[in-house]
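Tip: read the tokens left to right.
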């Protein structure tokens, strides 16, 4: 497996430590699939959970997936930082950007995660990650594990 290096845009947004953590963490949560498929919600998906401009039946190269991941993480980081107006630790940045990558920036910015963070309730914001573990109203074990890992990062707990 090749080591992915975060682009300068991501590091400029969240700092080198959080950027490196995101590039390592998010792909392990998403899993890399080179051919388009439908996720549990029926969304056309490819590479490391990318959904934009997906083409059914297309196969992507690892280099294309690396570039897509870098662009998507940068876009999601910018979105999180635009709606959370309080200082965040590297772990909080990693957790919130990964959550936004999975649920979308708009959903993240409307969520209790963002509201609680902006109110100064960081413990509550980290705990609110656990609420986002369902697809179509059904709990998904993989999402529960992902949210628990994000919460641990958010709270600064080693995992």
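Filled-in amino acids:
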């Amino acid at each position: 497996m090749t080591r992915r290096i975060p682009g300068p845009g991501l590091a400029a947004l969240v700092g080198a430590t959080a950027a490196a953590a995101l590039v390592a963490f998010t792909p392990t949560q998403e899993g890399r699939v080179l051919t388009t498929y439908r996720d549990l919600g029926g969304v056309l998906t490819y590479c490391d959970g990318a959904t934009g401009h997906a083409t059914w039946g297309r196969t992507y190269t690892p280099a294309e997936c690396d570039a897509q991941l870098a662009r998507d993480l940068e876009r999601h980081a910018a979105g999180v930082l635009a709606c959370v107006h309080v200082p965040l630790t590297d772990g909080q940045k990693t957790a919130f950007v990964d959550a936004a990558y999975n649920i979308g920036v708009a959903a993240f910015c409307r969520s209790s995660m963002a509201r609680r963070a902006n109110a100064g309730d960081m413990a509550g914001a980290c705990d609110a990650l656990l609420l986002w573990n369902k697809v179509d109203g059904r709990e998904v074990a993989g999402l529960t594990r992902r949210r628990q890992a994000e919460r641990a990062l958010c709270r600064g707990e080693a995992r």
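The CA atoms of residues 38 and 44 lie 5 Å apart. Residues 8-154 form a domain with the Lysozyme fold (CATH 1.10.530.40).
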